[in-house]
Amino acid sequence: MAADRSWATTLGMSWSKEPPGLVATFTPGAGHRGPPGRLHGGLAAAVLDETMAALSLASDGVHSVTAKLELRYRHPVPLDGRPVRAEAWRDGSRPGASAGGPRRIQTVHGRLVLADGTVAVEASGLFVRSPEGGDD
After folding, report:
1. Predicted confidence (pLDDT) per residue in 51-77, tens digit
2. Which overall architecture, per CATH, does domain 6-129 show?
3. Every domain of the chain and the residues it spans
4. Exposure pattern of 91-116 as b/e (b: 16+ CB <10 Å)?
């Protein structure tokens, strides 16, 4: 999926619509370092925020902005040259739940998954449709 999101492009992120909703890949490098050998937590947050906000554009064709973002850092993200996977989905995107539509305010969930399948960061947030429909 092509996206006009310059911040994410700078990080080399690429998106695809696939379960659980929208997936981005990102390969952290030495310039993204926080603690020695680990990804800076603020960049982990930015990758998730970008992916979670892009979900409404990919699913509904509307831009959204972040109103609230909560994160839980479970494991450090190593700078080992392997890509990480950022996943985003809405309430209702998981099996057995009702489907969400393009509401003005949406709850979105996300997680950053390491190459070995370990969930490193979990996120949830409120995203609001952008009235202008432009860049966020």
Report:
1. 999 999 898 888 999 999 999 999 999
2. Roll (3.10)
3. 6-129
4. eebeeeeeebeeeeebebbbbbbbee
